[in-house]
Amino acid sequence: MVQTVLRAPETPRLPKISAAQARRIALAAQGFGRPRSEAVGTRQLNLAIDRLGLLQLDSVNVFERSHYLPMFSRLGAYDKADLDRLTFARKGRYIEYWAHEAAIIPVETWPLFRWRMDDNRAKYGSKAGGWVESNGEMLEWLKRELAAKGPLAASQIEHDANKGSGSWWGWSDVKAGLEYLFRFGDVVTAGRTRFERTYALAESVLPQSVLDTEVPREDAIRRLMRISARAHGIGTLSDLADYFRLKQAPAKAAVDDLVDAGELLPITVDGWNRPAWLHRDARIPRRIETAALLSPFDPVVWDRDRTERMFGFRYRIEIYTPAPKRIFGYYTLPLLIDDRLAGRVDLKSDRQNRVLRVQSAWTEVDAAPETASRVAPVLREIATWQGLNDIEVMGRGDLAGAVAAELGVRVIPVG
User: Fold this and answer.
1) Rounded distance between C-alpha atoms, residue 224 and residue 42, angstroms
2) What is the pLDDT along the chain (415 residues), one digit of tens a residue?
3) Which of 36, 18, 51 is nearest to 286 (CA)?
4) What angle do CA 172, 175, 179 make, to 5 degrees?
5) Global pTM?
6) Which site among 208, 217, 263, 314 is 20 to 30 Å from 407 CA-CA?
């Protein structure tokens, strides 16, 4: 008798790429390594924002507000007023919401977060004795104020509340109320003035077609993961989910759907030790040529785990670290040289004296000898872009002396 031996089917071997290829794929997907335009206008800005899918906002302004920096890192010098007109217009192509953190997103992306708005309403609005329940009268008053008077800043509404009769609400109440309504989707931004949000009812700003768009949660998460996958080029589940702060289980279901649709390809990456996926349209450049300083809130580095896994670069922003305990500086920007994070530079714009101050400059252990010569032109371009006449280099960090020499300035001793 011939016996039949049953064998388990072999698991298909996944395509494998090197860690260096993964870095180049990710950087290319983020818009690095592309030829720069001679002049950067709204077309180039729109294309860059659409490629990223969002611009994270942050109020720190010691050097420059974070949402301006990804455009400069990828495109070079541009008129910030052009970006303001695009992103802070009352009725424009972009709007704000809690996407990664507070971020500028395309208007058509806003309905993909309705499930998050509903979750926020359920989380904060249904809590017995919570802030929202206790301040329901004020929330209704805020909506009536916006309906009657149109877009207003929190400071304007607080001023009106002080003048009104009856209940009085202070700044903290008004601001908190507006932020809850913003999270719920009842209120949106209608631009900013000196970075202060102007608030408006959603129906006063968004097109009716956007307001009428209803996207089921699963479909919305799948579409957000599609945007994330395109912006990453390659990534793990946690990478792709973190772009829009999605939970792992629904994100994995979306990845499976995108694999079935042929949009994502399962792949392995040397040294990653976890599953990864490659976007079908991702480029795999032979090399990336670039020199840029990145915002701490740039998508390339905002996921610190991914940054360390991909670049071997451990990065922590030290704004909230007491000065004596800081290692690298208050507002250090990662230095991207080609496909490596080669160092970090702490910058400050002294606008009163029109000086760009290099507070410190550091290299990573494997940084190339030409690192200083690569970053010096970037600093000159930054100073011109910021309208600053001079660059000063403080003598802090192992790269400071070489950078000062490249710039032709003396090192200022640190007292």
Assistant:
1) 25
2) 455 555 555 556 779 999 999 999 999 999 999 999 889 999 999 999 999 999 999 999 999 999 999 999 999 999 999 999 999 988 889 999 999 999 999 999 999 999 999 999 999 987 777 899 999 999 999 999 999 998 999 888 875 555 444 455 555 888 999 999 999 999 999 988 888 899 999 999 999 999 999 999 999 999 999 999 999 999 999 999 999 999 999 999 999 999 999 999 999 999 999 999 999 999 999 999 999 999 999 999 999 999 999 999 999 989 989 988 999 999 999 999 999 999 999 999 999 999 999 999 999 998 999 999 999 999 999 999 999 999 999 999 999 999 999 999 999 998 7
3) 18
4) 135
5) 0.92
6) 314
Per-residue burial over 225-234, b = 16 or more CB atoms within 10 Å of its CB, e = otherwise: bbbbbbbbbb
| 3 state SS of 206 | coil
Cα Dmax for the chain: 99
- Give the closest residue to 93 by CA, choosing from 103, 104, 77, 81: 104
> For residue 159, which amino acid is it?
H
Q: DSSP states of 64-105 as a string?
A: --GGGHHHHHHH-S--HHHHHHHHS-SSSSEEEEESSSEEEE
How far apart (Å, rounded) are the C-alpha atoms in residues 201 and 118?
A: 17
The position carrying tokens 């309208």 is: 387
What's 16's DSSP letter?
E
Euclidean distance between CA atoms 322 and 53, whole angstroms: 34
- What single string gives the DSSP state of each residue in 299-368? TTTSSHHHHHHHH-------TTS-GGG-SS-TTEEEEEETTEEEEEEEEEEETTTTEEEEEEEEE-TT--
